[in-house]
């Protein structure tokens, strides 16, 4: 081959070699790009998996956080309502009024204050990481996915601690509500016990006021906190009514005692005057007249004169024996029907209501009905038939006081059996007994 041909062949080989190198270079570039893409895809998938795993834990914490926060809010609302109810109870001032022991109210105040402190808490916004999990990971680059996953991982521990704190606060609030309810219940029981003691202390109040208070006390301990304030206020008003009625009864009793003492002193003075007059007239005996009768009866209404006349309470009652002694002191004389020779030696007319009634009737002594009380006077003798014992006379007493009243004369008696100086007629007939009747002999 000549030189020219050889040169041309070499040039041709060189050209072929150049084209092959370019192709190889191109192929290498494509392969490198594919490998880089595969690596990037693999890294993104790993970052996405890490993101989803961390986001799932955050989402679970978010749900638990929301549940704990809702439970805490619900318990707090209940506790706040209880605190408000207790505040309303304390406004009544039951302890200051003596309606409940001071220690019971102190316990209630302590439980209330502890509950109120629990209601004062920091309101903290939910962690921002909760919003981050709402992002669409498909729209995030690998670096963003890795950054979010790292943020999620860092937030897990503090967020879990926050959830635990919320749960513990909810339990503490619920426990405080239970303690406050217990304190309220104990307060109500203590108030009911104190009210019962007040009823016992004020037994002289009228029956209507005591019955109303008793009804309130029966239900006091059963009230829930939301209604206890109203119940305690009603209890307060009922106690005030009982105390007022008791004070009125005590004032009335004091006035009656003073009047009784004055009447006794007057009767004794009259008896002394009668005795002096009888002595001047040459008569014998302890005295005569109504003054002597009443002085004797008042002297022996509680201090029985058993040495002279005995005591018949163990054999049916001493009421007629006592009436007869008064008539004798008044100046009456014994006879074959009406007499006593001492303890255990008396006639029927001296000790029996039925026989005394027959004896006084046989003497022609006027008999007054309950519609003639304006004619009754001190020293007259009343004969009674208790309705609940059936037909027949049961009791006799001597009139000890007659005074005006809004519904007619108020007649009282001095009596044995149920010993008393001023047993009021209507109360005796219709309160102490039932369906009873009586008439009164107008002793001349």
Automatic annotation (TrEMBL):
The chain crosses the membrane at residues 21-40. Keywords: Coiled coil, Membrane, Transmembrane, Transmembrane helix. Residues 243-270 form a coiled coil. Pfam families: Amidase_6. InterPro entries: Amidase_6. It comes from the Bacteria. Residues 294-435 form the Putative amidase domain. This is Amidase domain-containing protein. It comes from Agromyces larvae.
């Amino acid at each position: 081959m000549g030189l020219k041909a050889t040169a041309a062949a070499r040039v041709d080989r060189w050209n072929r070699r150049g084209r092959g190198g370019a192709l190889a270079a191109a192929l290498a570039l494509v392969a490198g790009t594919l490998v880089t893409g595969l690596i990037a895809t693999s890294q993104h998938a790993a970052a996405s998996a890490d993101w989803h795993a961390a986001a799932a834990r955050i989402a679970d914490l978010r749900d638990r956080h929301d549940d704990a926060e809702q439970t805490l809010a619900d318990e707090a609302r209940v506790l706040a309502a209880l605190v408000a109810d207790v505040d309303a109870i304390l406004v009544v001032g039951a302890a200051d009024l003596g309606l409940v022991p001071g220690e019971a109210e102190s316990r209630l105040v302590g439980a209330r204050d502890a509950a109120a402190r629990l209601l004062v808490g920091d309101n903290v916004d939910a962690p921002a990481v909760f919003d981050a999990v709402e992002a669409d990971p498909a729209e995030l680059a690998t670096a963003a996915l890795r950054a979010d996953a790292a943020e999620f991982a860092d937030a897990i521990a503090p967020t879990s601690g926050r959830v635990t704190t919320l749960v513990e606060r909810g339990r503490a609030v619920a426990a405080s509500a239970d303690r406050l309810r217990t304190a309220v219940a104990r307060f109500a029981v203590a108030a009911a016990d104190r009210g019962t003691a007040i009823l016992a202390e004020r037994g002289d109040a009228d029956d209507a006021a005591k019955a109303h208070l008793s009804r309130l006390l029966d239900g006091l301990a059963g009230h829930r906190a939301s209604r206890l304030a109203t119940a305690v206020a009603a209890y307060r008003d009922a106690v005030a009514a009982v105390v007022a009625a008791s004070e009125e009864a005590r004032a009335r009793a004091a006035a009656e005692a003073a009047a009784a003492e004055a009447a006794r002193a007057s009767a004794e003075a009259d008896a002394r005057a009668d005795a002096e007059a009888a002595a001047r007239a040459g008569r014998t005996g302890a005295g005569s007249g109504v003054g002597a009768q009443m002085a004797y009866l008042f002297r022996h209404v509680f201090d029985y004169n058993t040495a002279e006349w005995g005591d018949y309470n163990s054999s049916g009652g001493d009421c007629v024996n006592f009436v007869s002694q008064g008539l004798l002191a008044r100046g009456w004389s014994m006879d074959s029907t009406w007499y006593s020779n001492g303890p255990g030696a008396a006639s029927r007319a001296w000790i029996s209501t039925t026989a005394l009634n027959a004896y006084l009737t046989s003497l022609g002594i006027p008999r007054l009905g309950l519609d003639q009380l304006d004619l009754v006077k001190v020293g007259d003798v009343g004969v009674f038939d208790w309705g609940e014992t059936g037909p027949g006379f049961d009791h006799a007493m001597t009139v000890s006081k007659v005074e005006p009243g809004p519904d007619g004369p108020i007649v009282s008696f001095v009596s044995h059996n149920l010993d008393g100086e001023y047993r009021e007629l209507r109360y005796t007939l219709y309160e102490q007994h039932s369906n009873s009747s009586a008439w009164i002999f107008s002793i001349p």
